[in-house]
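Saturday, quiet lab. Running sequence design on the C-alpha cells for the scaffold JK sent over.
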C-alpha cells in the first residue's frame, strides 16, 4: 500500500487572483525574473504555454540545492483560477513515487488567497514530507505578489499551515 500524503497552505496576497493565475498559468517563464533566487528558468519543452498536456522544464532552488523538474500541465480551470502540474521527471521523483502541485487563486474583498496543494506518494515512511517545497511555493507567491503590485519584497515572512491528511 502506498504512503499518500497531502500538504496544503494558503497565502494571502494583495494582487487580484486573475493576475496571479495569469503569471503561473500562461507566463511561468517570467517567474525567473520575478523570483530569480528561487526559479532560474522555466522552458516550454512541448506543447503551448498554459495548455493542458504541455510539458515544462524548470530549474529551481530547493533547500539551497539546484534542482530540476519536468512536469505536464494536467488540468486548468480558468474560471476558478486553478492549475495542476504533475511531475514526470526530476529531483522530486528521486524521493517520491509521484508528485502533483495544484494552485488555486481565489479573490477576496481585498486581494486574493493562493491555495497550494501538494499531493505525493512516498516509497517508504523514512522519506520526509515536503514542507520545504511548500514553503518555497508560499515564498514565491509573495515575490509574484510584490511584482504584480509594483513593490519589492524584502523582509517578508511566510507562515505555512500545518499539513492536512
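Result came back. Writing it out in full:
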Amino acid at each position: 500500500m502506498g504512503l499518500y500524503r497531502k500538504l496544503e497552505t494558503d497565502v494571502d496576497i494583495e494582487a487580484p487572483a486573475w493576475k496571479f493565475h495569469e503569471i503561473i498559468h500562461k507566463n511561468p517563464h517570467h517567474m525567473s525574473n520575478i523570483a530569480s533566487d528561487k526559479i532560474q528558468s522555466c522552458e516550454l519543452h512541448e506543447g503551448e504555454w498554459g495548455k493542458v498536456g504541455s510539458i515544462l522544464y524548470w530549474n529551481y532552488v530547493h533547500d539551497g540545492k539546484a534542482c530540476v523538474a519536468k512536469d505536464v500541465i494536467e488540468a486548468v480551470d480558468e474560471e476558478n483560477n486553478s492549475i495542476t502540474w504533475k511531475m514526470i521527471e526530476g529531483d522530486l521523483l528521486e524521493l517520491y513515487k509521484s508528485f502533483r502541485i495544484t494552485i488555486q487563486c481565489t479573490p477576496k474583498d481585498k486581494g486574493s488567497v493562493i491555495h497550494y496543494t501538494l499531493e505525493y506518494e512516498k516509497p517508504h515512511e523514512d522519506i520526509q514530507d515536503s514542507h520545504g517545497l511548500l514553503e518555497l511555493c508560499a515564498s514565491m507567491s509573495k515575490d509574484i505578489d510584490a511584482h504584480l503590485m509594483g513593490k519589492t519584497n524584502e523582509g517578508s515572512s511566510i507562515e505555512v499551515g500545518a499539513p492536512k491528511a
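Notes for JK: The first strand starts at residue 3 and ends at 13. The chain is about 20% helix and 40% strand. Ask whether to fix the surface positions before the next round.
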